[in-house]
Prior knowledge:
- The protein is mainly alpha-helical.
- It has one domain (2-133).
- The protein is 96% helix and 0% strand.
- The protein is built from 2 helices and no strands.
- α1 (2-106) runs antiparallel to α2 (110-133).
- The chain starts with a helix and ends with a helix.
Amino acid sequence: xxxxxxxxxxxxxxxxxxxxxxxxxxxxxxxxxxxxxxxxxxxxxxxxxxxxxxxxxxxxxxxxxxxxxxxxxxxxxxxxxxxxxxxxxxxxxxxxxxxxxxxxxxxxxxxxxxxxxxxxxxxxxxxxxxxxxxx
Length: 135
């Protein structure tokens, strides 16, 4: 009988161990479910962040393109201003030469008149060349 009692005790111990392991298995299964949910949430977050990064990269690319176009416009405006500044200088010289032309006609100084007309022709040609650069 002692052998039977020992066997019954061992069986009871094994059944207790099985019950304990079954409980641990349920805890582990719950942890697996929780971790799986957390992993899925993390994957969703990563996908959202990757989408955000893609959108930010697109916006950055667009901003760079816009900046490049604006820089081109600024360079173009600077070139135009430089040409117009030169035209204004030439216009001032033309104005002075017309004053000299009027004086040369009034004093009948035909040598000065001829030189002034030649200078006006040169200034107008230079002005026309600059204005042609604006087109």
